[in-house]
Amino acid sequence: MRSNAYTNCFEFxxxxxxxxxxxxxxxxxxxxxxxxxxxxxxxxxxxxxxxxWGELNPEKTLTNIWEYAVGLGGSANDKIAFxxxxxxxxxxxxxxxxxxxxxxxxxxxxxxGSGTTCKMAKLYKRNFIGFDISEAYVNIAKERxxxxxxxxxxxx
Length: 156
Description:
By secondary structure, this protein is an alpha+beta fold. The chain is built from 3 helices and 6 strands. The strands form 3 sheets. Strands 1-4 form a two-stranded antiparallel sheet.
């Protein structure tokens, strides 16, 4: 806690692409109301709404603030990941992988830490390039990916 300012409760995630992103698979959530309903239409200066019957959307695209469980079982189930001091929730990585890529695309994680993004890329059939300045963290990442593939991996 900080005594002289609000505490940030979010992190920025930057999605880089060459040119405009070629893929956007938005995450959806169910809407509160569904089915047919009288909807306001053609509101005029007199303030009177004409009503027309319309179909409500059964789902909507999420906002840009997402919440995730953290800790063992929330961020990850493989305990080796917690040898890193700031593990990234697997669901957060997979949601971004789903949103911005398709199977076979390449994902770059230049600060791969414990390898969460690389692990989720592998699970979702994406190619990945991951590296980190810390050899210890690279070894954790390799081990996490080895667990899901049961085969030795080349250097990250």
